[in-house]
């Protein structure tokens, strides 16, 4: 289907829905936006589940309503609009990673119901955001800063906790939906675009028993741009895709039981992803005798499979002490199928398959609280243990099949208490001891405090520490041949992270809640010592090894506001941060602070009479700088590299019919048509004029339509 026809179809759908708006009879008027989410309940880092306003920690909440307005299907779709977070897509691998306060995915954890999610490269860390489906999500909670006491190692810059839905007010809920998207200017009903189908079914058998399950199919057919796809038979460098095709299947199930002071649930998930890589080099295989050719290419198919099991029980011991215990078995494998492909006849031969990455293990976490009858004192004791076995090769092509499986075990115990002194002041100290099969005993500490002023201002201060344990590659890499010598280091020490955050918050509102304004000023300082870097340990022959040598600093401030007036909502956040790297792994470095600005905003307007919500999201990522080695100098010299700023804008219109049973959402992603952004290197007073293809961030402006039916009985 041509682009013009695609746009005509989408525009026709839009105007058709607008026509329906004019004819839709007025339904019962709903609560205004100002009446919604007044007391958001959070669980991340809490002794007991409580409202955001009462939490000593500052917890950001992305509610289900925002996920629906964005029509987000994966975590990458949603976090792209969050302040202090930068999404880094990788078109050549199909993965999307994330940075928080300038630190990559190794330094924060992604959890599902307080359980770290296993992935190709770790447990909770380095998670591919596009592999996290949001169909059964109730809300996403984000805590910034070191959270080592509550969540152990690798929680240096923060926590992202995904809370799933575990209950329903209805006996039956059946929710199918379909979603169609263009990929830039490319779309076809079968061979181009993004095609999503999902079905969720939930049933409440009684007041105690509830079950649900859902299946989702997400087909991203790849973005060609100036490429010609897999069937291109000329050796002109144009075969394949700029953004690789990716096909995902996921299935989830939940069983929950609740009675009196006891509740439990079992949740499982199976996830399967296939990413196809088509080589741009074509061997024409010309036969002079027949004057024919039989073009071939060397292609790969990467497959990831994840199994997730989580059993949770919570209740009271001796009708007093609260307990919450979780046990999880998880596994994720990554396979590669490498073959030669005959392009004209569409057949594979010389097929070789191998598993080159694997993680599997057992994880358990438990907390015990409510030891005292006093409302002014709370104590929480907890444990956390994990036993992870796995191996990996950073380059599948180099994998020999002889990797030795390694096991990492950890056994942690932690304690935290909360003291309330009067109606204004409360504070919360905590400590954790971390015992490991690989490292010396590590400690994490935290101290949080909240003070409520007379005029409604709330001041929160959070100081926390967390180590970052070396990953499998840093510990166990062994890539040695006649041309290479890169080795891990089993004697590495964990990196040490410390953060300090201050938050000053105030809520303004009318007594009748027709409007309210929430404003917050935050400031932070975050450090990481003993950073692990690949260093030269021998000049001749050249040999590399991972060592603890570098340091990292980040400080900044942010100002966020949320205004709700009737059916109008406006969010605006500004963040300015500076980062400094002490590169002791290099002979010459510059540890100056380099600054970056981010602006995040969104506007929502709801028209209850016609059951329609209009939404616009915008985020500006200012220019970013870093110091890199100058390739034009004989001696190692650092120069400043600049990545230009860019804006990212998404928009949607959501219309409901048939008493909210049917939802139609139309929208656009990347309205500013961002694809590549420029990078340049500056040394002295000038800029190097070397060729630079820039950084690929998007595939251009895209449009989507989503149709969802929600049957509640």
UniProtKB/TrEMBL annotation:
Keyword Repressor: yes or no?
no
The signal sequence is: 1-22
Q: Which InterPro entries match?
A: Beta-barrel_TonB_sf (IPR036942), OMP_b-brl_3 (IPR041700), Plug_dom (IPR012910), Plug_dom_sf (IPR037066), TonB-dep_rcpt-like (IPR039426)
**What domain of life is recorded for the organism?**
Bacteria
* Stretches assigned to the TonB-dependent receptor plug domain: 55-159
One GO MF term on file is: siderophore uptake transmembrane transporter activity
Q: What compartments host this protein? A: Cell outer membrane
- How does it sit in the bilayer? Multi-pass membrane protein
GO BP annotation list = siderophore transmembrane transport
Residue ranges of domain Outer membrane protein beta-barrel in the record: 446-687
Q: Which keywords does UniProt give here?
A: Cell outer membrane, Membrane, Receptor, Signal, Transmembrane, Transmembrane beta strand, Transport
The record's similarity note reads: Belongs to the TonB-dependent receptor family.
Protein name listed in UniProt: TonB-dependent receptor
Organism (species): Flagellimonas olearia
């Amino acid at each position: 289907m041509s682009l013009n026809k695609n746009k005509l179809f989408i525009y026709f759908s839009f105007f058709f829905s607008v026509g329906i708006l004019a004819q839709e009879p007025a339904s019962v008027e709903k609560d205004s936006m100002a009446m919604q989410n007044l007391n958001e309940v959070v669980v991340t880092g809490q002794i007991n589940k409580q409202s955001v306003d009462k939490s000593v920690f500052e917890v950001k909440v992305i509610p289900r309503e925002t996920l629906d307005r964005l029509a987000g299907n994966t975590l990458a779709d949603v976090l792209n609009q969050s302040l202090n977070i930068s999404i880094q897509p990788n078109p050549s691998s199909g993965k999307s990673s994330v940075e928080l306060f300038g630190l990559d995915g190794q330094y924060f954890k992604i959890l599902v119901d307080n359980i770290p999610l296993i992935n190709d490269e770790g447990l909770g860390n380095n998670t591919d955001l596009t592999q996290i489906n949001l169909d059964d999500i109730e809300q996403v909670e984000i805590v910034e800063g070191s959270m080592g006491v509550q969540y152990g190692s690798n929680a240096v810059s923060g926590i992202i906790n995904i809370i799933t839905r575990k209950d329903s007010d209805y006996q039956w809920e059946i929710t199918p939906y379909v979603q169609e998207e263009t990929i830039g200017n490319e779309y076809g009903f079968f061979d181009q675009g993004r095609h999503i189908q999902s079905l969720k079914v939930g049933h409440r058998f009684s007041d105690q028993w509830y079950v649900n399950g859902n299946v989702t199919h997400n087909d991203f057919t790849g973005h060609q741009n100036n490429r010609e796809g897999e069937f291109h038979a000329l050796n002109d460098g144009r075969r394949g895709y700029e953004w690789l095709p990716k096909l995902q299947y996921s299935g989830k199930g939940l069983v929950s039981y609740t009675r009196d002071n006891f509740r439990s649930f079992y949740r499982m998930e199976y996830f399967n992803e296939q990413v196809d890589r088509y080589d741009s080099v074509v061997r024409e295989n010309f036969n002079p005798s027949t004057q024919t050719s039989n073009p071939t290419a060397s292609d790969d198919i990467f497959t990831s499979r994840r199994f997730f099991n989580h059993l949770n029980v919570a209740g009271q011991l001796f009708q007093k002490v609260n307990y919450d215990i979780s046990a999880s078995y998880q596994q994720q494998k990554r396979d590669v199928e490498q073959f030669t492909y005959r392009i004209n006849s569409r057949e594979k031969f010389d097929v070789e398959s191998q598993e080159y990455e694997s993680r599997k293990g057992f994880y358990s976490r438990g907390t015990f609280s409510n030891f005292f009858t006093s409302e002014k004192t709370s104590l929480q004791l907890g444990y956390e243990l994990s036993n992870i076995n796995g191996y990996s090769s950073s380059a599948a092509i180099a994998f020999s099949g002889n990797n030795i499986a390694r096991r990492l075990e950890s056994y942690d115990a932690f304690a935290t208490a909360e003291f309330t002194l009067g109606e204004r002041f409360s504070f919360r100290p905590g400590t954790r001891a971390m015992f490991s099969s690989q490292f010396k005993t590590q400690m994490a500490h935290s101290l949080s405090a909240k003070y409520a002023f007379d005029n409604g201002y709330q001041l929160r201060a959070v100081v926390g520490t967390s180590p970052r344990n070396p990953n499998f590659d840093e510990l166990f890499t062994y890539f040695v041949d006649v041309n290479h010598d890169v080795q891990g280091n089993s004697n590495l020490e964990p990196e040490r992270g410390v953060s300090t955050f201050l938050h000053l918050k105030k809520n303004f509102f009318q007594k009748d809640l027709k409007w309210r304004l929430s404003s917050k000023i935050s400031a932070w300082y975050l450090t990481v010592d003993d950073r692990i870097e690949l260093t030269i340990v021998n000049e001749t022959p050249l040999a590399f090894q991972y060592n603890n040598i570098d340091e990292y600093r980040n400080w900044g401030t942010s100002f966020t506001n949320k205004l709700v007036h009737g059916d109008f909502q406006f969010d605006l956040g500004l963040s300015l941060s500076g980062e400094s790297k002490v590169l002791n792994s290099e002979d010459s470095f510059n540890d100056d602070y380099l600054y970056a600005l981010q602006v995040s905003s969104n506007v929502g307007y709801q028209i209850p009479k016609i059951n329609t919500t209009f939404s616009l999201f915008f985020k500006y990522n200012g220019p970013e700088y870093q110091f890199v080695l100058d390739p034009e100098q004989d001696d190692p010299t650092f120069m400043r590299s600049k990545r230009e700023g860019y804006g990212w804008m998404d928009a949607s219109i959501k219309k409901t019919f048939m008493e909210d049973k049917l939802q139609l959402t139309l929208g656009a992603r990347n309205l500013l048509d961002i694809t590549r952004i420029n990078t340049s290197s500056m040394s002295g007073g000038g800029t190097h004029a070397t060729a630079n293809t820039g950084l690929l961030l998007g595939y251009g402006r895209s449009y989507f339509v989503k149709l969802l039916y929600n049957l509640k009985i």
